[in-house]
UniProtKB/TrEMBL annotation:
This is Ubiquitin carboxyl-terminal hydrolase. The gene is LOC109906313. One of its GO terms (biological process) is proteolysis. Keywords: Hydrolase, Protease, Signal, Thiol protease, Ubl conjugation pathway. Residues 173-188 have a biased composition (Gly residues). Its EC number is 3.4.19.12. One of its GO terms (cellular component) is nucleus. One of its GO terms (molecular function) is cysteine-type deubiquitinase activity.
Length: 397
């Protein structure tokens, strides 16, 4: 109990409102001390074999990136695929080769704890996307989205060029074109568009958007894939409540009427969105940044939203393939501060049964009870909070 209080006090003092993360840390001394303290605290017998807990140096407001990278590193299926990519024949530098180098450098360290500068990854990121080519605070969710989509695109491009090479060889050998069936992991229905990569295998789920015409009762449904789900937040609620809100029935009327194919005219309709295929890792983004017209800028909703350690989705469709999937919380990207372009990001992760907090170059073990501190605030007066922003839930099967 005493320890928990220490941790909480430590957190409170670290994230004061003015603590914007401009700390380009070169503080090798303090982080070294911190690292060995962590190793001691876990203890030699308890320290998981083949596991490494490394903080990441901040290169000037790059905590949005560090926090997401740490969360992804502790999404085991993702980490394994990125490490496996490293062993494949060298390709020209990309965001994925930089990521696999970084993950590999963490995973192959002699020491169990320490600090690594993700220098190559950051400079590649700044080179590839002008949005991130500055020293301003960025949105961690935007970065996650960009990273996953970029990796998926790279893998699809590689798959295609391999196919092209193989087809070329077949032609040279007089085998004819013969169709490209059998290659690639695509679903086949829409050809190239649905080509699956391991990013999709891990993060992709499917939503089904059902619309029921209130005139003829005809139901039409349209499926839509997602790599993460963005849900609205409300004060003093839970993730379950947010997901219910996400799947609530919405009535389309007046100017938003729906064109019914059966009636061949615009009709009032009811619409609802449900999960049809549950992903292996469910990334839930809480929409905490809201544009306020009167302020003409984004403000943070620090609402207290409870996220459970175990989660089962109930907003699934009747024909869902795996509706009973049970999820465990494995990582949370936390936003500290009062707005999207100010403040700081940290990450809490679960590893081998205990919880760790990654704050750029600092890594600490925390008590499971301390997670409650990241639900948000019950009072609406203060906007400054350390609150869960992106949740990563991993399926048990
Ligand atoms: Zn109709």
């Amino acid at each position: 109990m005493f320890y928990l209080q220490c941790v909480l006090r430590g957190l409170a003092s670290r994230f004061t409102p003015v603590c914007v993360c401009v700390c380009v840390c070169v503080c090798g001394l303090s982080s070294g001390a911190n690292a060995s303290a962590l190793e001691k605290e876990i203890g030699p017998e308890q320290f998981p074999v083949n596991e490494h807990y490394f903080g990441l140096v901040n290169f000037g407001n790059t905590c949005y990136c560090n926090s997401v990278l740490q969360a992804l590193y502790f999404c085991r299926p993702f980490r394994e695929k990125v490490l496996a990519y490293k062993v494949q024949p060298r390709r020209k530098e990309s965001l994925l080769t930089c990521l696999s180098d970084l993950f590999n450098s963490i995973a192959t360290q002699k020491k169990k704890v320490g600090v690594i500068p993700p220098k190559k990854f950051i400079s590649r990121l700044r080179k590839e996307n002008e949005l991130f080519d500055n020293y301003m605070q960025q949105d961690a969710h935007e970065f996650l989205n960009y990273l996953l989509n970029t990796i998926a695109d790279l893998l699809q491009e590689e798959e295609k060029s391999q196919e092209r090479q193989q087809n070329g060889k077949l032609l040279q050998n007089g085998g004819g074109v013969g169709g490209s069936s059998g290659t690639g992991g695509g679903q086949g229905e829409e050809g190239e568009k649905t080509q699956q990569t391991w990013v999709h295998e891990i993060f992709q789920g499917t939503l089904t958007n059902e619309t029921r015409c209130l005139n003829c009762e005809a139901v039409s449904s349209k499926d839509e894939d997602f790599l993460d789900l963005s849900v609205d937040v409300e004060q003093n609620t839970s993730i379950t409540h947010c997901l219910r809100g996400f799947s609530n029935t919405e009535t389309l009327c007046s100017e938003y009427k729906y064109y019914c194919e059966q009636c061949r005219s615009k009709q009032e309709a009811q619409k609802r969105m449900r999960v049809k295929k549950l992903p292996m890792i469910l990334a839930l983004h809480l929409k905490r940044f809201k544009y306020m017209d009167q302020l003409q800028r984004y403000t943070k909703l620090s609402y207290r939203v409870v996220f459970p350690l175990e989660l089962r989705l109930f907003n699934t469709s009747g024909d869902a393939t795996n509706p009973d999937r049970m999820y465990d919380l494995v990582a949370v990207v936390v936003h500290c501060g009062s707005g999207p372009n100010r403040g700081h990001y940290i990450t809490i992760v679960k590893s081998h049964g205990f919880w760790l907090l990654f704050d750029d170059d600092i890594v600490e073990k925390i008590d499971a009870q301390a997670i409650e501190e990241f639900y948000g605030l019950t009072s609406d007066i203060s906007k400054n909070s350390e609150s869960g922003y992106i949740l990563f839930y991993q399926s048990r099967d």
